[in-house]
């Protein structure tokens, strides 16, 4: 109720303001000045938009809403004072310019308010009801104006407008208080990553380009009709009171047409004729209307005005009830990652540009030929719009197909529920499998009443993907009456995936009664039939099924051939039921790599706890490392302590590295804490950052990365200093290894940032930074410059910027004391420090030997007894070279 | 026998692995096999099952299909990658034309490299594309 009243009072305020604005402007100015209003309004709306975004960042939502309405109130009062007591001509232009801007502010305030108070479902249910507040205010306010004007002047309408807005603001305060919790629940999410990046990149996409072109034309048509409308109104009404009365009645009529169109027409028309009609309704109407206007203009002013009135009313009504929902449907066909950008581009760039351009074009056309020229321009715009609408319709279907492949659109209930079932039923007959699946899944989503008959008719569809979709639907339902049809399909189905799902579905519906049909299949010659039958028996056919399948798996394990054992493990993996411990262990100890890898996979899938130590041992072996990591991760938090213990008792760096990967993937608090502690381990720090990044670890506060960033940056600087003083010619490989380490540390900067800042944006920056293009690298730095806090920015940016090595070092040395390095000192450090990377040691020993450099001969003598075989062998080789 | 660091340096100079850090190439260097053949030895035989790929380190090999020579591969060139990726009978016979040193990489290692390093996957795709182009 509060919201309804709030909407009603804001609506009353705007109706009175608009009537006053239109009337005062037309009384003071010639209509030929209207284009200037559009041009100035477009520039001003961009300026105010920028200002709004800045304020938005600085104040909380409650205050933002209040500021929006205070601003509107301030403007209304300001115009009232300026016009009432000063009568400056520019004020009459100003009030017209601000008309649309004030509408925009009130609309945004209400949109944000309802968005916070309601969730998407409540919003859908109640938004229509709340909107009636505004519509009712339009009708009542509009009709009352002629009566009110018997007692006051037009300018005094602004006083009523401001009083109404004051009441609305009071109600806003009450609403904010009532729903206080909702406001505090609004989390300051990461900046929407999708909204970043260049807007103009969107124009490279043909689909978006056509959509933006139509948007532009829609605005043009709207402003051009607007212009003709005011032109004729000014011609007909010369008395201020008559003019204001006319606008009042017009607004009331507009709201009546709006309500009729929204409630009775738009939904039905859109669902019956789809997006095509939605996109073409206005241009067709405007084309017919403007053509008729051109014909009638010559002989009957009255008929021409009636036609114009109808065109203006329908244009406004269809804009809200047909075109806007159609655009909303178009938005749904855009990948979520791009959607916000496309919407923002249309609203913040296309709209002001269109308004400004419309002003310029109107100015030009009225200069050349007057009102007829404007009509011809509308005709041309409409023809182009219709052509583009046809193209967009085709592209829309293609976009849907692409989205469907990513399964995005189906998740959007608001979209699916707004489309008529006839569209989906028609889609089922399409030759295109994607369209069939899309329609099928949409019908499920809206809980279509006759799904059983639909899936029954599609069970033998020629497309594998369609059959899979149909079986998924049956599997997740209780359509037991389809079991005989499924049984017939079992005899003919040849596709492996479909067959497996078919058997599962059949057995799930019938339970142990399915055994009679499925049992014979376990002896089939085809491996996939045999496997699918065993899996289905275990999963769905009760104890009897398990006994039959168990016997068969046992037989496969007892077979000597590797293939049979692999098949048995494959079946166990698919079943996911723990059992056959000894057989799995035996396979794990096999000399056959494939069998061993399969056994590791099975241990993970079945979570065979007793074999965890064996899997950990296999982390040392490169052939089995990936499968072993994956298997351990499947144990989830249950394996944390065991993995940490193994880590602490291990001396192998490769095993420790793999264990870090496992721990980071477990996403467990204890595991994460342990992994983070390894950022202090010089040999594991890089892999630790990589693992944390890969597993999307997030710090709760951005400040938490400061220390990590700082210590990493010190490493980068140290390596830069070393590289600066390095004589690369004699030690080329060592130089190249140090350079790789330096690059790795720079890469770490992005990995660390991604732990606290929007991940996608950082990934985008990293990918650009790794590019060979200088422009892209600069873009990456610019992106970070705009994203990071000042403190972090000051540390990170100089490292990444395209400046010379010495400049980089100079910039940091102003703030941080940097140690000086000489080559001999550094070589000594590499040879003696156990925390220097192995490859660096090997490379240096090798190149010192190759260059017959005897400076470190004593170290070589020590290294020949090193526990690491590679160091030992390389040092021995180097010593031989020196002798 | 080459030192591990020598293997790493050689691997780094091969286009397929040039974008992998030497630290990461260490794992590959310690897992691959170093094999040397005299001249006129069949390294792989058309139709045989095989799961390894080879890199020519020194020497030269001829690639023959049905006894007909279709290519000669020299230092830093790769062969046998198809069977390593998809264990099927070898599509060609490879014969050494002189004493040849090869690095032999098993498919499990190759899978590991592809999974861990996108640059290797890219390199393999590039080699496969070249093969398709040449066969056309």
In the predicted model, the low-confidence regions of chain A spanning at least 5 consecutive residues are: 187-196, 407-411
* CATH homologous superfamily (4th level) name of the domain at 205-395 in chain A: MFS general substrate transporter like domains
* CATH level-3 fold name of the domain at 205-395 in chain A: Growth Hormone, Chain: A
How much of the sequence lies in strands of chain A comes to: under 5%
Number of strands of chain B: 8
The main pleated sheet of chain B reads as:
4 strands, antiparallel
Report the span from N to C terminus of chain A: 96 Å
Largest sheet of chain A: none
User: What structural class is derived from the secondary structure elements of chain B?
Assistant: alpha+beta
* Intertermini distance of chain B: 39 Å
CATH class placement of chain B: Mainly Beta
Biggest sheet: strand arrangement of chain B: 1-8-3-6
Count of spatially separate domains of chain B:
1
CATH superfamily of chain B: Jelly Rolls
Q: How many strand segments of chain A? A: 0
The name CATH uses for the topology of chain B is Jelly Rolls
Mean pLDDT of chain B: 89
Low-confidence stretches of chain B: none
The percentage helix of chain B is: 25-40%
Label the structural class of chain A: mainly alpha
